Amino acid sequence: MAQIELRDVGLSYFTLMQETEALRDINLTVEQGEFISVVGPSGCGKSTLLSLVSGMHKPTKGRVEIDGREVAGNSPKVGYMLQHDHLFEWRDVLGNVTVGAEIRRMDRKKAEGKALELLERYGLGGFAHHNPSQLSGGMRQRVALIRTLVTEPDIMLLDEPFSALDYQTRLTLADEIHGIIKDQGKTAILVTHDISEAISMADRVMVMSRRPSTISTVYDIRFEEGTGLSPWRKREAARYNQYFNAIWRELEGHVVFAR
Ligand code: ADP
Asked: How far is the C-alpha of 137 from the C-alpha of 210, rounded, in Å?
């Protein structure tokens, strides 16, 4: 059974003045442990798609399922990672990574144990009692990811998590975050406007059309160099440029059409 399934999904936003049809006829299945990237013109409905999986919004049409059950309200199986880390400056790193567990009223001792284990495993063990302001932007985003992992989600939704960072940090962090998510066996959906990030992190890249947005193409990302390559290695792989050019051309088509 697929872990995430969207069947004939549509979503419209209604305000007093107008209806905005964001998504139309979306069909998607994601297997456990798979990493999917979503790219598309700005405002086409990528974040909306994530909000359907997280249960923040209900589809206007069709059905969204996680593990064969219809999503109804915020699902504890789902964790978010956003562009801004939203760390609390008045709490130390350990206090920050256990905050989600506190909100969910998980056992405090257990959450702290898990948090310390994850911080240690992913190179932040020496920073548990530092304040967020003492960390680099990349480290802060790793802390934000660990905060979510402490709540033990099965699915990670990543909404432009690197876009506030400088280019060098983005490249390194993409490698690190990809490594952590694969190591933890999580299923992930990444929304990004960066084609090279989309290709280098994902098993499949989904290109969306302009609004009302449908899935225009899904690319299976496979390299002759082997499976399980890091984003860094994928960027160097022979077929990488072919994927890049194909997706670039397709996105150009959608953007030009929308002008
Ligand atoms: P993307 O993530 O691809 O940039 P979004 O999913 O944020 O796009 O938005 C898709 C469309 O839906 C946009 O036209 C946006 O203005 C509109 N939209 C998003 N959220 C709301 C909302 N809460 N109410 C009304 N319209 C919305």
From this structure: 32
Structure tokens at 169: 């940090």
Q: Where are the domains of the chain?
A: 4-77+155-258, 85-152
**C-beta of 37 in contact with ligand 1 (< 6 A):** no
Distance CA 90, CA 110 (A): 23
Burial status of residue 220 (CB atoms within 10 A of its CB: 0-12, 13-18, 19 or more): exposed
Q: Provide CATH code, domain 4-77+155-258.
A: 3.40.50.300
Instruction: Output b/e per residue, 151-187; b: 16+ Cβ within 10 A.
Output: bbbbbbbbbbbbeebeeebbbebbbbbbebbeebebb
Omega into 212 within 30° of 0, i.e. cis?
Answer: yes
Give residue 23 CA to ligand 1 midpoint distance, Å: 10
| Residue 41 beta carbon below 6 angstroms from any ligand 1 atom | no
Mean pLDDT (10-residue bins), the chain, 259 residues: 95 93 97 97 95 95 96 90 91 95 89 94 94 94 93 95 88 92 95 95 96 95 90 93 96 71
15 CA: nearest ligand 1 atom: 25
State if residue 13 touches ligand 1 by the CB under 6 angstroms criterion.
Answer: yes
Instruction: Establish whether residue 42 lines the binding site of ligand 1, counting it when its CB lies within 6 angstroms of any ligand atom.
Output: yes
Angle at 68 between CA 150 and CA 20, to 5 degrees: 85
Residues 6+ apart with CB under 8 A from 55: 64, 71, 72, 73, 74, 75, 78
**Cβ(39) – ligand 1 distance below 6 Å:** no
Which run of H or E residues covers position 44?
A: none
Ligand 1 atom 5: the closest Cα is on which residue? Answer: 45
